[in-house]
Amino acid sequence: MSMYDKVYLDVSILKCPRCGKLYADCSWYVVDLESDIACSICGKSFNSKRNIIDRVLIEFKIRDGRAEDVKIIKYLPIKD
Length: 80
Description:
Strand content: over 45%
Oligomer: single chain
């Protein structure tokens, strides 16, 4: 029996096209909803899907209900 439970999260890394501020968000929000977000630095609104620079699958190891370790499991394709 494993000492850990594992959970996974698909994460997209975004970059503001105006000032370059980086963001990380759940890929379902970015890819499926294609949501616009407002940059917290320059205030520009931009489409999250069109500004993805990377996409990864993250694994969390959970013990006693708390995250103990996080790692990148694989890089995912950025879909157009």
